[in-house]
């Protein structure tokens, strides 16, 4: 029985690096949603070799981050109402299950660490918001959701969630000017979820999580 050729570790690392650089550039708006690009432009934008970019494109197409448009070429995913609705619906499907599971299975210590991280942001914000604190809040936000998802211990779900997170973050790029205004409300929405988790109240935790996601969805839809 023949075995498929395994790519050398160096090739795998190169492909992963190309993916990481591409998504970093996308999230920093160096590559913009809806933009048309050629393979060589992606080489210039990412600093990665052409071979790595060619191997990267099928993955980006499969994940919906790039769309091939006939007679026009490669287009970075355009932001539209369909994407917003689909991305947030996907979040709801995954996070309902994840929040319920996390509430029952997470250790008291893990929940306490989450609560402390959020309370630290809220306390620091009382002295005024800085750019650094906004970045820290965004990181706490991301780590909260990823920790809940990863507690499911399902690699397929974790990977799919992270791709969807990129899409949600691109949608939220339009909200950049609102980031400071959203820091406290988002932290408090998370703290409501965490408080229910601490009580091991699954239904309350899921209800608070759904409200949190729907608030973010409503903000995104108002931008359209």
Following the backbone from N to C, one meets helices and strands in this order, namely HEHHEEHHHHHH
What multimeric state do the chains show?
Answer: single chain
Look at the structure and name the CATH superfamily of the largest domain: GntR ligand-binding domain-like
Helical stretch tally: 9
Structural class: mainly alpha
* Count of distinct structural domains: 2
- CATH architecture heading of the largest domain: Up-down Bundle
Count all strands and give the number: 3
Shape: globular
CATH topology of the largest domain: Four Helix Bundle (Hemerythrin (Met), subunit A)
Name the helicity range.
over 70%
Brief rundown of the structure:
With about 220 residues, the chain is mainly alpha-helical. The chain contains nine helices and three strands. The protein has two domains: about 10-75, Orthogonal Bundle (Arc Repressor Mutant, subunit A), CATH 1.10.10.10; about 80-220, GntR ligand-binding domain-like (Four Helix Bundle (Hemerythrin (Met), subunit A)), CATH 1.20.120.530.
Provide a descriptive summary of the structure in words.
The chain has nine helices and three strands. The chain has 224 residues and is mainly alpha-helical. It folds into two domains: 68 residues, Arc Repressor Mutant, subunit A, CATH 1.10.10; 142 residues, GntR ligand-binding domain-like (Four Helix Bundle (Hemerythrin (Met), subunit A)), CATH 1.20.120. Strands 1-3-2 form a three-stranded antiparallel sheet. Helix 5 runs antiparallel to helix 6 and helix 8 runs antiparallel to helix 9. The longest helix is centred in the middle third of the chain and has 25 residues. The protein is globular. The N and C termini lie far apart (54 Å). The mean pLDDT is 89.
